[in-house]
Amino acid sequence: TWRVWAIYVVFAANLSKQQALKEACPSCDAAQLCNCSSMGLDSIPPELTAKITVLNLAHNRIKHIQSQDLQQAVNLRALLLQSNKISSIEEDSFQSLVKLELLDLSNNSLAHLSPLWFGHLFSLQHLHLQGNFYRDLGESSPFSSLRNLSSLHLGNPRFSVIRRENFEGIERLNKLWIDGRNLSQYEPGSLKLIKKINHMIINLSNSNVFSEIVRDLLYSVTWLEVRQIKLAVETKSMVQNSTPPFRIQKLTFKHAFFTDQSVSRIIVLLKGITSLRELEAIDCVLEGKGIWDTKEITLSGQSFVETVSVINIMIQNFYLFFDLFGMESQINKLKRLTIASSKVFMVPCSLAKHFLSLLYLDFNDNLLVNNRLDETICEGAWPSLQTLNLSQNSLKSLKDTAKYISRLPKLNNLDVSQNNFGEIPDVCEWPKNLKYLNLSSTQIPKVTTCIPSTLEVLDVSANNLKEFGLQLPFLRELYLTKNQLKTLPGAAPIPNLVAMSVRRNKLNSFSKDEFYICDSPLAVRGAQVGAVHLSLMECHRSLVVSLICILVFLVILILVAIGHKYHVVWYLRMTWAWLRAKRKPKRAPPKDICYDAFVSYSENDSNWVENIMVQELEQACPPFRLCLHKRDFVPGKWIVDNIIDSIEKSHKTLFVLSEHFVQSEWCKYELDFSHFRLFDENNDAVILVLLEPIQSKAIPKRFCKLRKIMNTKTYLEWPLEEHQQQIFWENLKGALKS
């Protein structure tokens, strides 16, 4: 009864633990995910079990984490504690979480970081510590044991100091984000300890710290994103005493503040970073009129940047902005340019003509109008341009727009969507190589032959189209979403169509005469589907080819299986060995005989052969010379050649037969590759020693010669009685001498 009572007590205890957890956090599910966020918890729920893998305690009122709180949650993979009021964590609180991969302690009240918290988090990949109260990371590195760390988020408005030792132990990061908006002290070399960072984001306001950090990141960061910085007129080089090659390829400024003077200087300084290929400015403010020091910029040499993106830049009094005269030498190598949501209303023709290498131009969401477009796309401007985005501007005339764009000889991709054209002419002039055209949301009421016949992709979604009947022989994709279509377009005018989107229209009927037309095979193109009768092969050629391939594969598989079962490879190798052996004389010249006998035996019988028979024969008077594969075969030589050569150089061949011999793969090959030459009707070069009785059925059927010789010729049988063994040795020696 006491055992029953003990079991009951344990069961009741476990049940009470589960009940306590369920009461504190009722949303734990069968998938071991516990979502306890926004539940007003003051502490971590009690009795967490090893079953839990994800624990979400975000947006509560937790203030302290104690040693025993997470002690049992040994299988935890993700622990979310952001947006609480955590001010203290006992040093061994996370000691049992060796499988933890994500730890989020952001937006709490931690005044310092302890390396002991993270000492046992060997699997940790993502650590979020931003938005706390700590002013620095301590005198040493809190992260020295986190060898698998992939992303690290840290810093806060009070964070002001980075020391040289703070990042020891971290070698590689996919993402590093530092909120250092009030960072005032940075010890040079601090970030150099991290050998590779794919993407680094840093909030900075101190321009001097920015230059020092860039110098430390030249060899480690691929993409550097700087936020909230107010760039001053820097005089020191960003690559001071550093030599290429550098790693940094992309630099992004976000929510930054520039002046004409700082822009001029940053353009000059960035030229020193010879690896830089992409430059971005997003949601930035430029205070100035574009009066840049073009002389200094020109004298500083050619820029290596190939891609420039300016998105939503705020320029006070933008209408007074200068035309960037003097910048021509800096833009002729540029390949991709995006200036979006920035109130651009024109580009001077003199400047546009110098974009000699530009392939991609994006003017989305600006103030371009038709009469200014004539200046922006003048004759000779943008000579290499292939892709142009003029969507969401103020263009009104599709005819004029097409006319100006036709001046771009290499253009093949054009987006003029979200311009209010309203009307569409019957005839338009377009670039000869235009393949892609986006006219969606342009308020055109119909489609006409204004649309070029060279198109492969056409988007006329979100217009007022009631029908579509254009002849577009090369069109492969057609987008007609959100129109007023009542019938589908005819198939004959667009014979190469592969994809068509007609969602959100008013389709109520299909034109059988136009839509159900055969497109392929070529022999029946244009014929009615109902009048065509094709064979299975013609209708489902790919399916038939697939089936044939499968059948061929199965046949090959069956042949391989049969070959394996019936030893086809063995027969092929035997045939090759036999053909080679037949070309040689049956008997080697006496001068080439090196051994009295070649011994063929199973490895399982090696004790008897090597310790009894060899000792008896090689120590006889006179001694016999025996050839053993283990001792006398030439290393590296094909085993077949070794066997044939050894047999030819031996006066006799001695087979030590046993159950092991006929079951041994090695002996099978040895016997197989020798019996063509040895088992002739009148050949007496073979001596058979029967080490133990062998059942006739135990001998493989393909050894028919061996069966025949055992049935027709005398063999020596090893006696177990000691007094008969001397007679055996005398008979064997006599056979070897004959």
Automatic annotation (TrEMBL):
Q: Lineage of the native species?
A: Eukaryota, Metazoa, Chordata, Craniata, Vertebrata
| One Pfam match | TIR
- Quote the protein name from its UniProt record: TLR21 protein
Q: Does the keyword Transmembrane apply?
A: yes
Main subcellular location of this protein, as a coarse class: membrane
UniProtKB keywords: Disulfide bond, Glycoprotein, Immunity, Inflammatory response, Innate immunity, Leucine-rich repeat, Membrane, Receptor, Repeat, Signal, Transmembrane, Transmembrane helix
InterPro entries in the record, alphabetically? Leu-rich_rpt, Leu-rich_rpt_typical-subtyp, LRR_dom_sf, TIR_dom, Toll-like_receptor, Toll_tir_struct_dom_sf
Cellular component terms, GO, for this chain's entry? plasma membrane; receptor complex
Q: Where is the signal peptide?
A: 1-20
Q: Which residues form the TIR domain?
A: 593-736
Q: Where in the cell is it found?
A: Membrane
